[in-house]
Amino acid sequence: MDIVIVIGFCIATVCACKIIEKTGSEIKIFMVFAAMAVIFLKTSSSLSSIFAQMKYLFSQGSIDEQYIKILFKGLGICYITKFACDYCRDCGENAIAGQAELAGKIALLMISLPLFNALINIVSSLLF
Q1: DSSP letter string, 3-71
Q2: How far apart are CA 38 and CA 118, in angstroms?
Q3: CA separation for the pair 5, 17 (Å, rounded)
Q4: Three-state SS for 1?
Q5: In a designed cystine with 93, which of 34, 73, 88, 110 is the match (CB 3.0 to 4.6 A)?
Q6: What are the residue boundaries of the structural domains of the chain, listed by start?
Q7: What is the pTM of this model?
Q8: What distance separates the 2 farthest-apart alpha carbons in the chain?
Q9: Do the beta carbons of residue 78 and residue 34 sit within 8 Å?
Q10: Cβ-contact 31, 90 below 8 angstroms
Q11: What pLDDT was estimated at residue 78?
């Protein structure tokens, strides 16, 4: 992944959006979505190697695969929530962005409950 190309594309898209914004055109929203899709497609090609490397590292530490799934789900929730909140703030809807953040935090807490349970079991087995 060439970060210089991605950053250059981002800057070019922002400049184009600012030019279009001055004319009051509503096409800006579609440009932003298209740019987000292009950037995601460009960067997602490296995700499989990242996932493979993380899985290898966890297997070396003999960590249960359930925890790896929780980690990846948590990362997904964080990224999706961040994209949604940024988009809401770009549209001037800060209250909706705040509620989206709250929903993301609750979802993250819900999927991490098995980790808290395992941690409590480990601590209690050490104490007793």
Answers
A1: HHHHHHHHHHHHHHHHHHHHTT-TTHHHHHHHHHHHHHHHHHTTHHHHHHHHHHHHHHTT--HHHHHHH
A2: 40
A3: 18
A4: coil
A5: 88
A6: 1-45, 47-128
A7: 0.67
A8: 70
A9: no
A10: no
A11: 93
CA 125/CA 104 separation, integer angstroms: 32
The token pair that represents 86 in the structure block: 């940024």
Amino acid code (one letter) for 34: A
- In this predicted model, what pLDDT tens digit does every residue of 47-106 receive, in sequence order? 778 878 877 887 787 777 788 888 889 989 999 999 899 988 888 899 999 999 999 999
Q: For 59-74, what is each residue's pLDDT tens digit?
A: 787 777 788 888 889 9
In 3D, which of 80, 85, 89, 66 has the Cα closest to residue 108? Answer: 80
Q: With left for phi above 0 and alpha for psi between -120 and 50, is residue 78 left, alpha or beta? A: alpha
